[in-house]
């Protein structure tokens, strides 16, 4: 079989290649075999949201990982009808959310909205499971990376809360019972 | 309901009366000839008459043969020659025509009898008790009712005619031969007694083997049926080899049997042929000697030889008849033996209308045992008042479901009695029970057909078609059980014909207009609306060029590569080469990327190539040296992939930006020159204003463009309302569903859509429905019957918590004080709502009372509840 690149306009191949290059830059896929990344690039879906549009809501079943290609995403939690901001994610810093959705099914425990116009790349849990079934050797490493990403976010969110905690709420020791 | 029942009663009674005279013997005890001698006698007599007439026209040509030689030729009389030849050909033609009529009549009579036999047997089979089906494999029943009965049908038609014809023909030809020369006749008949000994001997052997063949075929049918029914388990466990091995042993057995069977069968044939050849040998030897010595005329010898040949035909037919009788007899005996059981209850009440029961149930000393003496229920005493709601609880195997089945008359108690109101359960006919009791099983059976067919199943069984519920009753039950969203979704996925669409076409277009205008800002995140002047990134290239559909499927993708005008357009617009290049890129990338994934359709969801096409394209890529093949089929395959390509959905390749403008220009050209549509008009009117111009064009050409004022009859209802391609299913599902429903409601279209959804085809055993949908459908089916006694055997177990709570709420509100409910329940948190809880353990009732009473007693129920919580 001839290599396709030798026979036609390279423009037609750009989409898959661009997605693969983008995934290679993501921490979750760093070090993953090229075959695995290529399959995720093939199965990933682009989603576009305009500024202010809801991306996920707290009461809906989670089913996919989001990677921010461009724009900013506001992560927040609704508490008694009020929005509580948790994190502002952008393409060049914490550029992912919903990573645990790849491993388990649960209702989103946070909400997300487009802070600016955003372009997201999503990978569904089904796609993740199907690819991992074909590359079982990579599964362990992928799970570890997902957990590390989650820890990084947890640390970041905790720091943010600590920075903004009211002096009255500060405790050095557990409250006495 | 009473009126409907009476109708049903009359219907069944008249059917029974029609056949009563013929059916004095139980169906499984009737011999095979019982059917033949008692059915369609006048037709059979007519057939016999034709056969007798045929005989004359069979013998007559022989006499003419003799006279042509002995008189016309001998006397050199051409006048006589013409006369005898004319009579000869006339007789032969009439005999041929009569034979044709005989064959048709035989087949007709046979099939008529077979229809009756099959109908009556199926009527009997359906009434057999459930215990029969516990031990009987479905494959056996299917094989018996289909292939085995078919084989008998071929015998039935000729069962009387063939032997009578053959014997009469045989006797007449023998008589003719004796008339010509008694000595020769005696000699040529000498071989027949030998056959009478040899053939039956071989036939007995054949019958034995044939019996085994029927049994082995049934076993094979059972294994295949079981594998197909349990195909989920087979795939789930990868147990292909186990199933293959099971079938393989039967295939081998059948092969060995058939080998022996055919050896015997062809042995019989050989014996026949051999004996047939001995006859002419004797005739030529003795007849020739006599003719040389002047003791026999040449004409007589020729006629004798013809008669001998003719006499062998009926003999051969008799032998074949004997074989097919034996074959049919063996099959018939086996079928009737299989179903030789009596139904346990009368189908219809005798000389009365079905009872209308209040719903009181009383069980006295009920014991139920299975073969082997194991008691599933023992000494059960339970009284249920009319309209009382009872929960049956207990550990697995405690007998809850068995008790429910006994109340539904699906099983009969081994000991003790059940009363419903004051009627003994044993005395109730099936119609009494089905008119008063509805049962919902944990794993209900859904029949192939539509949702509407399945909903009506219970009512039609009891009341026929005379008192079907109206649409509001249907929809009310659907809302009650929580099927509404599913039915709306099915309705939205329906493709409506112009006639179906006509009553609410304008309303649907109005819905489209609402989405395009007042709801546009919400929907445009999820939908890329059709716009005559823009490239559509969420639609395929075909839709971008054709921008509409033909009512005659003229412009479907598969046909476009062979469409001369379309291909001419691609060449003119210089699009053919870029599209072939694009198709080549898709094929080449997909074949490389998915070589190890071709067994799973999931990996082809976002690819223009379908999983089952992978091998074709893989072979194609192996042959091609570049993106512009010369072979027509290769170009066709590449073009199909390119035309299916959706830029924003198929990430496997990108659409070169230069192609977009070319495709837009091609769209314009296509509309103007091929389907003659004025797209400029559409562009001027924008995307939401209905107009009267385009529909007229569409009506003329049979082409429906993506125009705001046109209903697209080849697309789903949802496609028509959204009027665009879906960008994000997530947004559509999660955020816009309620908005759309409200708009439907406001336009008075919701019930119309649900009505369309009721015609959704559920597939074999309801395979196109989820487990929850099947369960809700079964619950709705039972509720729609609206009978006084409802038995629910873990009927809500496979529903999610919300749906379960909805059904429970219905029992507590709508059914309270209106229906007797007996519910087998595993989830004990549902039990407080019941009037009484009955606790079973090892086939006995160990406790009963209200929830509070039982919890306070701290007995068996308390233990069960503690274990659960």
Number of strands of chain A: 8
Most extensive interface, chain pair and sizes: A-B, 33 and 35 residues
Question: What is the CA-atom radius of gyration of chain B, in angstroms?
Answer: 38 Å
H and E order of chain A: HHEEEEEEEEHH
**Any idea of the CATH topology of the domain at 46-164 in chain A?**
Jelly Rolls
Uncertain segments of chain A of ≥5 residues (pLDDT<50)? 1-8
Q: How large, in whole angstroms, is the Cα Rg of chain A?
A: 19 Å
> What is the assembly state of the chains in this entry?
heterodimer
CATH architecture of the largest domain in chain B: Up-down Bundle
Number of domains of chain B: 3
Q: What's the helical proportion of residues of chain B?
A: 55-70%
The gross shape of chain B turns out to be globular
Mean pLDDT of chain B: 84
Total DSSP helices of chain A: 4
Give the DSSP E fraction of chain A (strand runs of 2 or more residues): 25-35%
CATH topology group of the largest domain in chain B: ABC transporter transmembrane region fold
Annotation field: number of helices of chain B: 35
Which segments of chain B are poorly predicted (pLDDT under 50) over 5 or more consecutive residues? Answer: 14-21, 687-698
CATH class term of the largest domain in chain B: Mainly Alpha
Count the strands of chain B? Answer: 14
Explain this structure:
The complex is a heterodimer of chains A (177) and B (869). Chain A is of the alpha+beta class and 177 residues long. Chain A has a domain of 119 residues: Jelly Rolls (Sandwich), CATH 2.60.120.10. Chain A has 4 helices and 8 strands; from the N terminus they run ααββββββββαα. A 4-stranded antiparallel beta sheet of chain A has the order 1-8-3-6. A 4-stranded antiparallel beta sheet of chain A has the order 2-7-4-5. In chain A, β4 and β5 form a beta hairpin. In chain A, α1 crosses α2 and α2 packs antiparallel against α3. The N terminus of chain A is likely disordered. In chain B, the strands form 4 sheets. Chain B has a 6-stranded mixed beta sheet, with helices on both faces. In chain B, strands 2-1-4-5 form a 4-stranded antiparallel beta sheet, covered by helices on one side. Helices cover 62% and strands 8% of the residues of chain B. In chain B, α6 runs antiparallel to α9, α16 crosses α32 and α34 packs across α35. Chain B is α/β, with parallel strands linked by helices and 869 residues long. In chain B, a hairpin with a 2-residue loop joins β13 and β14. Chain B folds into 3 domains: 313 residues, Up-down Bundle (ABC transporter transmembrane region fold), CATH 1.20.1560; 194 residues, Rossmann fold; 234 residues, no CATH class. Classes of the chains: A alpha+beta (177), B alpha/beta (869). The interface between A and B is medium-sized, with 33 and 35 residues.
């Amino acid at each position: 079989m001839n290599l396709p690149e030798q026979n036609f306009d390279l423009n037609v191949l750009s989409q898959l290649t661009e997605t693969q290059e983008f995934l290679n830059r993501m921490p979750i896929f760093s070090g993953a075999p090229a075959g695995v990344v290529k399959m995720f690039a093939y199965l990933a879906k682009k989603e576009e949201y305009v500024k202010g549009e809801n991306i996920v809501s707290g009461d809906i079943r989670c089913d996919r990982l989001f990677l921010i290609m461009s724009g900013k995403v506001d992560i927040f939690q609704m508490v008694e009808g009020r929005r509580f901001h948790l994190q502002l994610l952008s393409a060049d810093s914490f550029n992912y959310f919903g990573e645990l959705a790849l491993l388990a099914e649960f209702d989103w425990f946070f909400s997300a909205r487009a802070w600016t116009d955003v372009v997201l790349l999503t990978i569904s849990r089904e796609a993740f499971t199907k690819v991992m079934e074909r590359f079982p050797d990579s599964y362990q490493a992928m799970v570890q990376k997902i957990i590390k990403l989650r820890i990084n976010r947890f640390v970041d969110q905790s720091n943010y809360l600590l920075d903004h905690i009211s002096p009255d709420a500060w405790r050095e020791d557990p409250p006495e019972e | 309901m009473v009126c409907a029942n009476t109708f049903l009663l009359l219907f069944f009674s008249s059917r029974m009366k029609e056949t009563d005279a013929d059916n004095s013997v139980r169906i499984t005890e009737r011999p095979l000839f019982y059917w033949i001698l008692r059915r369609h006698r006048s037709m059979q007599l007519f057939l016999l008459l034709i056969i007798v007439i045929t005989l004359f026209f069979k013998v007559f040509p022989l006499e003419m043969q003799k006279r042509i030689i002995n008189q016309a030729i001998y006397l050199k009389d051409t006048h006589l020659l013409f006369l005898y030849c004319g009579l000869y050909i006339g007789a032969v033609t009439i005999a041929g025509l009569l034979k044709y009529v005989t064959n048709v009549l035989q087949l007709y009579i046979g099939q008529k009898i077979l229809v009756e036999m099959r109908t009556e047997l199926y009527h009997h089979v359906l009434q057999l008790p459930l215990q029969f089906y516990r031990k009987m494999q479905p494959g056996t029943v299917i094989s018996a009712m289909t292939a085995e009965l078919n084989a008998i049908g071929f015998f039935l038609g000729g069962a009387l005619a063939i032997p009578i014809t053959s014997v009469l023909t045989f006797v007449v030809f023998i008589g003719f031969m004796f008339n010509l020369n008694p000595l020769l006749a005696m000699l040529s008949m000498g071989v027949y007694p030998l056959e009478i000994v040899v053939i039956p001997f071989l036939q007995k052997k054949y019958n034995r083997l044939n019996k085994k063949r029927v049994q082995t075929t049934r076993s094979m049918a059972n294994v295949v049926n079981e594998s197909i029914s349990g195909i989920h388990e087979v795939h789930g466990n990868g147990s292909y080899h186990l199933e293959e091995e099971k079938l393989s042993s039967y295939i081998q057995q059948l092969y060995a049997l058939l080998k022996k069977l055919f050896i015997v069968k062809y042995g019989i044939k050989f014996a026949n042929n051999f004996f047939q050849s001995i006859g002419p040998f004797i005739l030529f030897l003795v007849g020739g000697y006599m003719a040389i010595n002047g003791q026999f005329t040449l004409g007589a010898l020729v006629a004798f030889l013809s008669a001998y040949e003719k006499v062998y035909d009926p003999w051969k037919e008799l032998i074949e008849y004997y074989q097919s009788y034996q074959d049919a007899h063996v099959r018939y005996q086996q079928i009737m033996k299989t179903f030789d059981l009596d139904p346990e209850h009368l189908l219809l009440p005798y000389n009365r209308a079905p009872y209308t029961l209040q719903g009181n149930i009383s069980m006295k000393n009920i014991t139920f045992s299975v073969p082997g003496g194991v008691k599933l229920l023992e000494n059960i005493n339970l009284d249920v008042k009319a309209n009382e709601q009872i929960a049956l609880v207990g550990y697995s195997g405690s007998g809850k479901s068995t008790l429910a089945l006994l109340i539904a008359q699906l099983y009969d108690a081994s000991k003790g009695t059940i009363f419903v109101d004051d009627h003994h359960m044993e005395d109730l006919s099936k119609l009494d029970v089905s008119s008063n009791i509805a049962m919902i099983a944990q794993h209900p059976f859904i029949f192939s057909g539509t949702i509407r067919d399945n909903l009506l199943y219970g009512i039609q069984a009891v009341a026929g078609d005379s008192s079907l519920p109206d649409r509001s009753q249907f929809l009310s039950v659907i809302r009650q059980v929580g099927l509404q969203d599913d039915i709306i979704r099915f309705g939205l996925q329906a493709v409506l014909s112009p006639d179906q669409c006509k009553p609410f076409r304008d309303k649907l277009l109005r819905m489209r207009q609402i989405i395009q205008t007042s709801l546009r800002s919400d929907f445009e995140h999820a939908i890329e609306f059709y716009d005559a002047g823009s490239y559509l990134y969420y639609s395929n290239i075909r839709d971008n060029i054709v921008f509409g559909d033909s009512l005659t499927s003229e412009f479907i993708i598969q046909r476009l590569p062979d469409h001369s005008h379309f291909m001419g357009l691609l060449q003119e617009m210089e699009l053919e080469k870029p599209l072939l290049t694009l198709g080549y890129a898709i094929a080449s990338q997909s074949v490389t990327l998915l070589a190890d994934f071709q067994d799973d359709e999931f990996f082809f969801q976002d690819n223009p190539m379908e999983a089952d096409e992978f091998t074709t394209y893989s072979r194609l890529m192996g042959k091609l040296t570049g993106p512009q093949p010369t072979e027509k089929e290769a170009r066709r395959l590449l073009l199909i992939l390119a035309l299916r390509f959706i830029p924003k959905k198929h990430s496997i390749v990108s659409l070169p930006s230069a192609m977009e403008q070319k495709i837009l220009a091609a769209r314009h050209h296509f509309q103007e020159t091929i389907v003659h549509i004025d797209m400029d008009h559409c562009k001027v009117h924008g995307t939401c204003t209905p107009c009267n111009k385009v529909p007229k064009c569409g009506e003329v050409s049979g082409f429906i463009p993506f125009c705001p004022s046109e209903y697209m009859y080849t697309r789903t209802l949802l496609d028509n309302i959204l009027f665009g391609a879906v960008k994000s299913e997530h947004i559509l599902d999660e955020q816009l569903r309620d908005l759309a429903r409200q708009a439907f409601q406001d336009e008075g279209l919701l019930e119309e859509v649900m009505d369309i959804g009721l015609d959704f085809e559920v597939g074999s055993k309801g395979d196109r429905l989820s487990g929850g949908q099947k369960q809700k459908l079964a619950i709705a089916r039972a509720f729609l019957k609206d009978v006084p006694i409802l038995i629910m055997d873990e009927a809500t177990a496979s529903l999610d918590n919300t749906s379960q709570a909805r059904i429970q709420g219905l029992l507590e509100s709508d059914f309270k004080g209106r229906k007797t409910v007996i519910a087998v329940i595993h989830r004990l948190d549902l039990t407080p709502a019941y009037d009484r809880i009955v606790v079973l353990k090892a086939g006995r009732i160990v406790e009963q009372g209200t929830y509070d009473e039982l919890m306070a007693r701290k007995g068996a129920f308390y233990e069960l509840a503690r274990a659960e919580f």
